[in-house]
Amino acid sequence: MQVAGGRIGPMRTTARLRALVALALPLVAAACEDEPPPQSSYFDENISPVLNAGCVQQTTGCHLVDSFGTAAGNLAMSTFDELARRRDVLTPYGPYPVGLLLMKAGDPANLGVETLEGPAMITTDIRHNAGITVALGSSAFALLKRWMQDGAARTGAVTLDERPAVGGCRNGVGTNPRFDPSAPPDDPASYARFVEQVQPILSARCSAANCHGSTIADFYVTCGDDEAELRWNYFVSVAHLESPASTSELLRRPLAGPAGGAFHEGSDVFETTNDPDYQTLLSFAEDYVSRNAGSGFGEVEPGFAFFVNRVQPVLVRRGCMFLNCHSPSMFHDLRLRGGAGGSFSSIAMERNYEMSLAMLALESPDPNDSRLVAKNLYPAALGVPGAKGLLHRGGALLEEFGTGGGVLRSATVADCEGVDADAGDLNTTPGYCIIARWHAIEREAAIARGELTSEPVEGILWVSRPPDADTLQEFDTFRGGASLMLASATLGADGALSVSGGNSLNGGCGLGDGADVRNPAVSWDGSRIAFAARESASAPLRVYVANADGSGCAPHDTINVGDASSNGILVHNFDPAFAPDGRIVFASTRGNADGATRTPAGMLPNANLYVFEPEGNRVRQLTFLLNQELAPSFMADGRVIFTTEKRAPGFYQLAGRRQNLDGGDYHPLFGQRQSIGFNQLTEVVELPNRNLAFVASDRGAVSGAGAIGITNRSIGPDQSNRDPADRFYYSSFDMPAPGAFMGGSGAFRSPAPLPGGRVLVSCASGASSLSGAPISFDVCELDPTTGAVRTIAGDGGASDVEAVAIYGRPNRGVFVSRQDEANAHTRVVPGEQDAIVHVQDFPLLETLLFANTREGRPLDPAVGGVGVLESMPPQPGTDSFDDERAFVTSDDFGEVYVRRRRWGDYAPLAADGSVRMRIPGGVPFVLEVTNADGDVLPFTDGTFEGPRVQREEMQFYPGERANQSMRRTLFNGLCGGCHGSVTGRETDVAVNVDILTSASRSLSSDDLEDLLSAGPGDPFGP
């Protein structure tokens, strides 16, 4: 039976035998029910009264669940089951002697934090809105502490953390700048003792695949099958030793808590210190420490030393390292290693330094532009004068200067005058000043290395062209009379940009006054520029490169090589963007293997993204989609972000996407259909504080215009229909320049980052509509905290767009696909053409394919399989919808071309909802949702109509080995912070440390549905 071109049949009488057998396994959550809780328990009789008195009733119901399923801090305490969802607050984690519950509600604690100069003694300053509700010396504190140390069980009985080891060890050494597999260890006697005594213990008790046999573990242990692996195991073991040895991570992490151990993401390896293996390990460690003094780093850079000695203790003191805050289990950009009771391994110090450094905006003279600082200052939304902070679930932890004249104010560098941030007491020196000083040290070092330009900004580039009505997708339309303009610029102390002069670079590039010029870009170090241009409608756009002053301008030899047209379509190369390492990502219409194609959305030339790689002097395709991938730019960590067009029957969107430069993890960035109030997101860029800025508009907006939107991507998806009475819902989205899009005046496009906290934009301040006549823009500066817009350059009769500032940015390398990405994990195997995709829980993933709001994930029990439909472009020679009417349908957005073919039959799900598939790499496809017999399910919730087929094309890179989704039992801990919990209740969003040890294990782990070998079926239409 056929419905709208999608298969509802053929009907199958039986599912596959393997799926039937799996249904009988006791691992299926739906088939098992927990024993009902007892009528009364140790918790009810002893713990609950303390919590009710100190944390629920006394604080006017803060930790009671409201009608929206929310509570203060996402923590409800009325029942054991509510509290058990947040075991992270009960666990003595990392440097903290007791769990977060007691650290916030109790008195400050005195801690020794390991530094390069020895232990630094600090007193915690962990803020709690209700103050101290469980005093340190009280019987209530003692009762709660003992209960938590014993395992926080309902019965109060002592419980050990025991998790089964799964999978064998792994071969292949890890990587660390201090490790050379060809060099013998410096202490041969200690190494020999390690090989003889310690390696057998690690092999037997630590090296399972779901434990330290995982490469994402800082303490990654190989099988030890050759000399290089043994040397690695020795290196990583002694890297986790400090003096005294008994308190170092290597000894405390595997030891059970009741025996004096520290939190361990795996199970309790040693129940007591009397374990013979523990005694062997301790003896080895004490011998090594006695023979090898010092940190193991050798000579270190001043910035690293300052971080370890001053900044890391501040992060501990402020409570940043709790399990549900900035621990490795959180899978966000700042996953700090908590060490063990204040002892930090050298690897933990390195990782914490690298991740914290990535949160510093060294390109800006103002440390408040850094995410590490801004997330801990007052947000501008509070109305605090001068506030540049960002919303932070942990609060404004660096606001330490009180009020000025009774008025709340935000911290600035001026507050640190006279403060000894280098050597002052860590307990009295403002943490803000210590981090600001670190910013200055690292900025000075980056300038000395030549990464940053001598001045914060040295100039700006922009395109001056006659006004036109073109959208971002209409790059094929020739727009002559454009000039690439260069002007000098300086940045004031207040972050305001001053621009002087302005000269056309056309002549030096061999371009006449009638040229079409588009989208300039600046290299990471500020020394080079790139842009696209052509001189006639019959010529394609080509990428040009030049020095930052315009000299040495010429077309790029490798990017522009090849024919000027393909399949009757001009081969445009345009929208260049420099990667931190000098590679250039650009858009091109050169097409896939069969050459240039047109888009199903509007029969325009289709553009995908490509990468020019100087090493090998080659161009590599990055995206393989049918509608346009445009306007790439880079995040500070070297990931590509861009605008993508999504079009299918009943669906249209321009959205933001993110991808790793090696091709892995093509991933949504922002733009949840109409649930955020608009359906076009274009020209997305990352700001120095790591927020994203873009143009927001609706379909039909003229001249690519709209409002300037900014999103705090660490908060999660927005939805415009969220109940305003829900006081614990945090909006991630702000529109500082709404203009005509929201009924006011002003039209905007082309946001670009500036050091200093402001944003370059193109603006038409008097525009009252985003439709009708072409809009003429000026170059402007937007203050995102106040919404103030100021014109700084432009020619009154022209449209001045696509401005970018010339300045240096710190080079932090290029992000490489890895196992610990937020989207489970992925890697790319060079030279392979297929893709192997392991979906952990397809019924859960299916809820994300069609909606992305924090309202729960209704899991459909009828979902039992998945089909893969390759999207195929209009055939060569097709210039309009009339040429292939059999594949064209219409909806509210107009006409759309739909031609697909199915790879294989379908892939049945295992009983836990997982499936592992081999599919073509480097092709656009959508997923269809089937039952266990392979029959396509229809939509039933009103989201769309017809067969349940994905509306947004996706891809996997050739050679990609990806995990998708997350098992529903782990979803809340990894994905819930952004996507909401499975139930929709905010109190269910909580970290689950099993993510680190067993996230990628499912019933499909050792099985494979080979849809690629099954081959494609015949093309079919809508």
Structure description:
This protein is of the alpha+beta class. It is built from 18 helices and 42 strands. Strand 10 and strand 11 form a beta hairpin. Helix 6 crosses helix 7 (227-238), helix 6 (188-205) runs antiparallel to helix 9 and helix 10 (302-317) packs antiparallel against helix 13. The protein is globular, with a radius of gyration of 29 Å. It starts with a strand and ends in an 8-residue tail after the last helix.
Short description:
The protein contains 18 helices and 42 strands.
List the helices and strands and how they pair.
Layout: E1 2-3, E2 6-7, H1 17-23, H2 42-56, H3 80-84, H4 100-105, E3 110-115, E4 118-123, H5 139-149, H6 188-205, H7 227-238, H8 249-252, H9 276-291, H10 302-317, H11 346-357, H12 371-374, E5 403-404, E6 407-408, H13 431-449, E7 459-465, E8 483-491, E9 497-504, E10 516-522, E11 528-534, E12 542-547, E13 554-555, E14 565-566, E15 569-570, E16 573-578, E17 584-588, E18 608-613, E19 618-621, E20 629-634, E21 640-648, E22 651-659, E23 667-670, E24 680-686, E25 692-697, E26 707-711, E27 733-737, E28 747-753, E29 759-764, E30 778-782, E31 789-793, E32 799-806, E33 826-828, E34 834-839, H14 842-850, E35 865-871, E36 888-891, E37 894-897, E38 900-908, E39 915-920, E40 925-930, E41 960-964, H15 968-974, H16 976-979, H17 994-998, E42 1009-1010, H18 1011-1014
Parallel strand pairs: 34-41, 39-42
Antiparallel strand pairs: 1-2, 3-4, 5-6, 7-8, 7-32, 8-9, 10-11, 11-12, 12-13, 14-15, 16-17, 17-18, 18-19, 20-21, 21-22, 22-23, 24-25, 25-26, 26-27, 28-29, 29-30, 30-31, 33-41, 34-39, 35-38, 35-40, 36-37
Helix pairs in contact: 6-7, 6-9, 10-11, 10-13
